[in-house]
């Protein structure tokens, strides 16, 4: 009797852990979409700051960062802090350093990171119109990336949930 209760408890723990793993993987796909949408929104804010407010980059980054959610907020605020702390740095270097800081906590893929990083190549280097063109280019590229991320989420989120549950059930069967 005690042995059966122990096996049942163990099986329940294995099933719960496997289901939680599958759910976690599905949530990562959802967070990636949310973070890409947040970054896309931040690009619109940055465009406004550069074209209408005509803010300098540290001020523009700070204003945009205050209006965004994590980790995009940290990306902009870190970049603004780095530009203020190291006036000799280019905006691209500050952007890349900031991206390196937030990347481990984000759900961005390597392709997402490269798209976001590419924005820094032209910030502060060219005139205002050149920067705005580059932002629009990154927005277009991000639109395609976001569409792919949404497709991946729709296709793979349910798969991860099922795999977690079925993998846990298979492990329980093997161990019994």
Helix and strand topology:
Elements: H1 2-53, H2 57-66, H3 72-85, H4 91-102, H5 110-120, H6 128-175
Helix pairs in contact: 1-2, 1-6, 2-3, 3-4, 4-5, 5-6
Summarize it:
This protein is mainly alpha-helical and 176 residues long. The protein is built from six helices and no strands. Helix content is 84%, strand content 0%.
Give a description of the structure.
The chain is mainly α and 176 residues long. It has one domain (2-175). It has 6 helices and no strands. Helix 1 crosses helix 2 and helix 1 (2-53) packs antiparallel against helix 6.
What is the terminal separation in angstroms?
Answer: 15 Å
Radius of gyration: 22 Å
Strand portion, in percent? Answer: under 5%
The overall strand count is: 0
How many helix segments?
Answer: 6
Mean pLDDT: 92
Order of helices and strands: HHHHHH
Shape: elongated
Helix content: over 70%
Number of domains: 1
Biggest sheet architecture: none
Structural class: mainly alpha
Unreliably modeled segments: none
Summary tags:
84% helix, single chain, mainly alpha, 6 helices, 176 residues
